[in-house]
Specification:
Layout lengths: L5 E2 L1 E2 L4 E6 L2 E10 L4 E8 L7 H9 L24 E5 L5 E4 L1 E7 L12 E8 L5 E8 L4 E9 L3 H7 L1 E2 L15 E4 L12 E2 L4 E6 L3 E11 L2 E11 L1 H12 L11 H6 L5 E6 L2 E4 L5 E5 L3 E11 L5 E8 L4 E9 L3
Parallel strand pairs: 13-19
Antiparallel strand pairs: 1-12, 2-4, 3-4, 4-5, 5-9, 6-7, 6-10, 8-9, 10-11, 14-16, 15-16, 16-17, 17-21, 18-19, 18-22, 20-21, 22-23
């Protein structure tokens, strides 16, 4: 079963797993399905605040710039990894290391202007697991030792109840009230999603037959803001039209980012607005990734928005390029 088209149970509330001087690691998203356990991790290294001149001076002075390599006990003596390794322990204590299904990295902020160092974000898919799993992390090259973390997981019954196709999951869309004033929402910097807490389970927000769907894959609270990830999936002729727009369309002009009409219709993925009173604020998407071809399209987009004071997120969701008109959706937020 394709995990992108299957809802599951939240397997971990999110937040930091490890805080060490050389590395922090947190859970962005964890979903348990009957077919697999999927965990998205984000690892951050500290920002190197030395200037280029200072680094050269350290090299000439033969001062060590790299930490001592951490010993290997669970990792093989030699492996091909260059980043964070992720695995699990079986009941006999043997480590099974998994390759990331997707990964990305960032060099971080400029040495004297920011606070974030280099980061590595990865999605790892494990065999189905229930009740508990021993997660193993290692990055010996930077001095981060092999670390075993016992993760409580939902039981099999809970996962069975939550596992369902996005084409069959229930919907709770409502008509959009007339007379709303549409505006461009205020842009927010993306929070550290791995340090937040998941406040809503995955659910389908909008759908058209078995051809187009918009799915809430993650909603994370970090202080006073929310980090939301939407998955947009299309099949058939609609997918080909969206792919053409996504991979061959023109770039947005800066002025269009302040135009609510453009923010709603531009695509290539779904669009979202926050309803406040008689106003709807269309939110500019942040990081995203898209893939398509052979009458299929999928896109993942992140949005950052303020957390509502009453903990009821009131949204308008649309995907004009896929033929999905505006629908109003209420999402209650957990703690």
């Amino acid at each position: 079963m394709d995990t992108t088209e299957t809802l599951g149970a939240v397997a971990h509330p999110g937040g930091m797993l490890v805080r060490r001087p050389e590395l922090t690691v947190g859970v962005v998203r964890a979903v348990s399905r009957l077919s697999a356990l999927e965990i998205e991790l984000l690892a951050r290294r500290p920002l190197d605040r030395r200037s280029a001149t200072e680094r050269q001076q350290d090299i000439r002075g033969r001062r060590p710039s790299r930490p001592a390599v951490a010993p290997r006990r669970l990792l093989p003596e030699y492996d091909e990894g260059m980043d964070l390794r992720v695995g699990r322990l079986d009941p006999d204590g043997r480590a099974h290391w998994e390759f990331a299904t997707t990964c990305s990295s960032s060099s971080g902020d400029y040495y004297h202007l920011g606070t974030s160092g280099p980061s590595y974000r990865s999605v790892v898919r494990f065999p189905p697991a229930f009740d508990e799993m021993s997660l193993v992390l290692a990055w010996p090259e930077i001095g981060f030792p092999e670390t075993v973390i016992t993760m409580p997981l939902p039981d099999r019954t809970t996962v069975e109840r939550a596992t369902t196709s996005i084409w069959q999951a229930p919907l709770d869309g409502r008509p959009v009230p007339e007379g709303l004033v549409h505006r461009a929402g205020r842009h927010h910097d993306s929070p550290a999603a791995e340090a937040g807490t998941n406040v809503a389970p995955p659910r389908v927000l909008h759908r058209l037959d078995h051809r187009v769907a918009v799915v809430l894959s993650r909603l994370t609270a970090a202080d006073s803001v929310l980090s939301m990830e939407l998955l947009a999936i299309a099949k058939g002729d609609a997918a080909d039209a969206i792919s053409s727009q996504a991979f061959h369309g023109r770039r947005r002009m800066s002025g269009e980012l302040e135009d609510p009409v453009h923010l709603r219709a531009a695509g290539p993925g779904a669009s979202v607005a926050v309803v406040q009173g008689n106003e709807a604020f269309w939110i500019r998407s942040g990081d995203g990734s898209f893939s398509g071809g052979d009458q299929t399209f999928s896109g993942s987009q992140e949005f950052t928005l303020n957390r509502p004071h009453d903990d009821l997120l009131d949204l308008i969701v649309a995907w004009p390029l896929a033929g999905l008109d505006d629908v109003r959706v209420h999402i209650p937020l957990g703690s």
